[in-house]
Amino acid sequence: MNESRESVIGTPLDAQIEALTEAGKLRRLSGAFARFVATLGMPSNRPTGGAEAPLMLACLLLSELEGRGHSCLMLNDLAQDPSALLGWTPEEWNALRDAAGTLPRNAMAWRAMLYSCEQVWPVGDLDFKQPLVLDGERLYLRRYWSDETAVAGAVRSRAGQPLPVDTAEARHWLDILFDHATREGGPDWQKIACATALRGNLAVITGGPGTGKTYTVARLLALLFAMAGAQAGGLRIALAAPTGKAAARLKQSIDHALDTLAGKVGAALPLRELAGRMGAARTLHSLLGARPDTRSFQHHAGNPLDVDVLIVDEASMVHLEMMAALLAALPPHARLILLGDKDQLASVEAGAVLGDLCHDAEAGRYSAATLDYVAAASGQQIPAAFLDAAGGALAQQTVMLRQSRRFGGPIGALATAVNQGDAEAARSVLRGDSGGQLLWMEAAQLPEVLKLAVQGREGAGSGYQQYLRLLQAGQTAAMEGGPDVHEAWARDVLKSFEAFRLLCAVREGEWGVTGLNEAIEQRLEAAGLIRRRGEWYVGRPVMVTRNDYGAGVFNGDIGLALPDPLRPGSLRVYFSEGEAVRSVLATRLRNVETAFAMTVHKSQGSEFRHTVLVLPREGGSVLARELIYTGITRAREYFTLATPSAHILAEAIAERTHRASGLRAQIAG
Ligand SMILES: Nc1ncnc2c1ncn2[C@@H]1O[C@H](COP(=O)(O)OP(=O)(O)OP(=O)(O)O)[C@@H](O)[C@H]1O
After folding, report:
1. How far is the CA of 405 from the centre of ligand 1 (A)?
2. How far apart, in whole angstroms, are the C-alpha atoms of residue 669 and residue 12?
3. How far apart are CA 506 and CA 508, in angstroms?
4. HSE value, Cβ hemisphere, 13 Å, CA-based, for 97
């Protein structure tokens, strides 16, 4: 241990960090990182500040916030009270702050102090590859600053260079593709989205569930084919999404929509043939060519993707680092179209890229030039309320779809109330539905929730027993009937499993993923629906928790363990891929967990006929509006909310997830 390292060990701050780590309030990694950086000797052109304790505190918070999805630390938060960001009590923060001794009094003083530290690179100064970056009022880990700067630069240059468009031709095709006879009130935002996307190499299309994001992008593809004329056959289109399931859904929806459109455009455009040349949709990892055990990809700026148009669905799940890699690998001429719901939970990893990109989506903030262009290319008049002369370049390339086609009724009304932060309206929707689509178990008891998990509820399907009964009924015939029969059975069982899901806000505790999975397994075993013999058993649903390139499975994939038809006695895990299934030997899967209950985070990109959202007894920092909204919007036909105490719903709706990020500031330049 060197001298400077010894200087921080055993100090009051060090002891307080240790105490908070022991209490589960801090990651061990954060303390280690803070000690390491505070005592790191760096060549620098600035004098050493001798400010180990404040620097250690800043590093500690930076690392801790990174683990909670923030890409930077705002000096204002550091100077005031960051306890809410950390999910701590003010007392916990005060104890840590007091242990650090005298601290800079405000953000400006923090900035001056950090500027004097040799471990920090103030942007614009001589760069010695210091681990921390100070950019205005934001402190970053270098990696996140680089990613954010790269994403901002790419977004700025893509959005800032409008492409020439033959507006008369665009109008001709858009009128064919959107031949809606009558529309009630307001402009057709779907048509507007296609027109704006045509004008640039970046388009962001956001909207809640069922607002027609896929419907719109299929028309946009047809438009791009049509406008490419004789070159349409050579247009290289790639479809991608963060998870395999979302990718398969995107492909299915686009194929279906293009097939319908082919009839509409007729002989004027060989749409079926053109669509047939598009490849399968892929996960972003596979598109970029992820390599085991490294963060780098096969495709990057030096070896770009071979595409002209890239469509990325479920973009809210794309984290900052992935977005940076994606933009780096995309050739400058290629069009990037991002689809997603800006109000959903942000990615598990750091960053809130879609949310940041869509900051102006609701307000529009279109320029007069955009209004003129849209009118010429689509015949649609954007109302003056969406006009803003100060709107940036990105706003001109962003469209929010505002009308849901599929997601009406009580579930849609509930999602809207939650999204608007209106707890009273949410409560009255939940209590008022007489059609059975919604059920609120306001003071839920655990046995009731377990009963619901096993048996479902009247009119809304019969819970997990449904797929297990199907499994049991067909197992003998499937094992004896040959590969085709077995595959059809596996597909049916998977489909049945996908109809129902229990989602939790938290992982730990009896109302969390771990507790509920164990309790549900016990119930199912008692009911004779599963027979556990160790970890693996017939019918076990599992979720992959780490990418495994060798086995071809990715984080978030969900499969079911079923008997291997070729090796009786051993189990394979079956995953559905669109209409097909593929399987992996169960014992090959190292990183999986049981998936009767899963977190709302992991459910993004999936929908279930009946979704049950289980909230814990106490709030905490994860319980926020975005989580509740994401949980509700996973439900296709039935939604059940189980709360051990009714007040938790209003508390969660009142809370907003906030992620510190400098992306918007960097895009604005
Ligand atoms: N303008 C429209 N006219 C008729 N039907 C439409 C229109 N827009 C969307 N739909 C239909 O509404 C349904 C939902 O559309 P779509 O799947 O494209 O929405 P989405 O926003 O992609 O949904 P999700 O959030 O689930 O991915 C589909 O059945 C689609 O065909």
Report:
1. 6
2. 41
3. 6
4. 17
245 lines ligand 1 (CB under 6 A): no
156's enclosing H/E stretch is helix 142-159
pLDDT value of residue 230: 79
Ligand 1 atom 2, closest CA: 212
- What is the 212 CA–ligand 1 centroid distance (Å)? 3
Residue 43 binned pLDDT confidence (cut-offs 50, 70, 90): low
Residues 523-557: b if buried by 16+ CB within 10 A, e if exposed: bbeeeebbeeeeebbbbbbbbbbebbeebebbbbb
The protein residue whose alpha carbon is closest to atom 9 in ligand 1 is 212
Give this prediction's pTM.
0.89
CATH topology of domain 12-136: Arc Repressor Mutant, subunit A (1.10.10)
Domain positions in the chain: 12-136, 149-405, 410-654
Q: What share of the chain is helix, strand, coil (3-state, %, to 5)?
A: 45, 15, 40
Asked if 283 and 247 count as a contact pair (C-beta separation under 8 A), the reply is yes
Cα dist. 398→120, 192, 200 in Å?
36, 10, 11
Fill in the DSSP letter of residue 373: H
Sign of the torsion formed by the C-alpha atoms of 627, 629, 635 and 636: negative
Sign of CA pseudo-dihedral 362, 363, 365, 366: positive
Would you say 478 and 566 are in contact if contact means Cβ atoms under 8 Å apart? no
Say how far apart CA 258 and CA 275 lie, in whole Å: 7
Is 81 in contact with 89 (CB distance < 8 Å)?
no
Strands (E), 419-482: 438-441
Q: Are 210 and 404 in contact (CB under 8 A)?
A: yes
> CA separation (Å) from 30 to 20, 103, 117, 452?
11, 20, 19, 40
pLDDT tens figures, 565-602: 998 889 999 998 777 889 999 999 989 999 999 999 99
Taking domain 149-405, whether its CATH number is 3.30.1490.100 is answered by: no
In terms of Cα–Cα distance, which of 107, 127, 2, 1 is closest to 54?
107
Q: Is the ipTM of this complex over 0.90?
A: yes
Question: How far is ligand 1, taken at its centre, from the CA of residue 166, in Å?
Answer: 28
Nearest protein CA to atom 4 of ligand 1, as residue: 405
- Is it true that 149-405 and 410-654 share their CATH fold? yes
DSSP state of 540: -
Q: Is 340 in the pocket of ligand 1 (CB under 6 A)?
A: no
What whole-number distance in Å separates Cα of residue 259 and Cα of residue 379?
Answer: 25
Say which residues have a Cβ less than 8 Å from residue 312's Cβ, sequence separation at least 6.
240, 241, 284, 318, 326, 336, 337, 338, 339
The predicted model gives 231-242 an average pLDDT of 90
Helix axis angle for 107-115 and 52-67, nearest 10°, is 110
> How many Cα atoms sit within 13 Å of 223 on the Cβ side?
32
The token pair at 456 is: 């479902």
Q: Where are the alpha helices (DSSP H) in 42-141?
A: 52-67, 75-79, 83-86, 90-99, 107-115
| Secondary structure element (H or E) that encloses residue 282, with its range | strand 282-283
pLDDT score for 580: 81
pLDDT digits (tens, 9 = 90+) for 436-454: 999 999 999 999 999 999 9
CATH topology of domain 410-654: Rossmann fold (3.40.50)
